[in-house]
Amino acid sequence: MPTTRRARVPFRRDDAVETTVSGTTVDHLTETYRAHYRSLLGLAALLLDDTASCEDVVQEAFIRVHSARKRVRDPEKTLAYLRQTVVNLSRSALRRRILGLKLLSKPMPDMASAEEGAYDQLERDALIKAMRGLQRRQREVLVLRYFADMTEAQVAETLGISLGSVKAYGSRGIAALRVAMGAKA
């Protein structure tokens, strides 16, 4: 069996340069803009809901294809590239819009109004004043128990008093606070 050799065609450097240089020209893109701007705007309008976004998408599509015109080797495919770019940009715009709606739909944390904040401050001031009116041991027990969030056993150990004393001082301190706070209200 004789083997046939394929004739090698020498690679010409001029051909490679010519194919990379060829592409969509600015004139062809300008003509495509004049002829197909309205249809591309209609395409974007089918995908998006407001005119301003549609115009932005179509303009951005032309800008992107213009900057990549050397890669569009066949000028007849320019319109196809533009259509695909309009579709992709419309999808991106919708994604951003949906993400924005998701972020906006999350309820804002409840914030106290200025009046509530002032009222809370008044209550806090009244509580501090009432706490100052307690006996020293009652104040210490209540502060450690309720503000430092210690157990009765931890308060007893910290103050060096018995568990029963902690309960008694705590009970008497709360009763005194009720009287002092009730008189203020």
UniProtKB/TrEMBL annotation:
<keyword id="KW-0804">Transcription</keyword>
<dbReference type="InterPro" id="IPR013324">
    <property type="entry name" value="RNA_pol_sigma_r3/r4-like"/>
</dbReference>
<keyword id="KW-0805">Transcription regulation</keyword>
<dbReference type="InterPro" id="IPR014284">
    <property type="entry name" value="RNA_pol_sigma-70_dom"/>
</dbReference>
<dbReference type="InterPro" id="IPR014325">
    <property type="entry name" value="RNA_pol_sigma-E_actinobac"/>
</dbReference>
<dbReference type="Pfam" id="PF08281">
    <property type="entry name" value="Sigma70_r4_2"/>
</dbReference>
<dbReference type="InterPro" id="IPR013325">
    <property type="entry name" value="RNA_pol_sigma_r2"/>
</dbReference>
<comment type="similarity">
    <text>Belongs to the sigma-70 factor family. ECF subfamily.</text>
</comment>
<dbReference type="InterPro" id="IPR013249">
    <property type="entry name" value="RNA_pol_sigma70_r4_t2"/>
</dbReference>
<dbReference type="InterPro" id="IPR036388">
    <property type="entry name" value="WH-like_DNA-bd_sf"/>
</dbReference>
<dbReference type="InterPro" id="IPR007627">
    <property type="entry name" value="RNA_pol_sigma70_r2"/>
</dbReference>
<keyword id="KW-0238">DNA-binding</keyword>
<keyword id="KW-0731">Sigma factor</keyword>
<protein>
    <submittedName>
        <fullName>RNA polymerase subunit sigma-24</fullName>
    </submittedName>
</protein>
<dbReference type="Pfam" id="PF04542">
    <property type="entry name" value="Sigma70_r2"/>
</dbReference>
<feature type="domain" description="RNA polymerase sigma factor 70 region 4 type 2">
    <location>
        <begin position="125"/>
        <end position="177"/>
    </location>
</feature>
<dbReference type="InterPro" id="IPR039425">
    <property type="entry name" value="RNA_pol_sigma-70-like"/>
</dbReference>
<feature type="domain" description="RNA polymerase sigma-70 region 2">
    <location>
        <begin position="33"/>
        <end position="97"/>
    </location>
</feature>
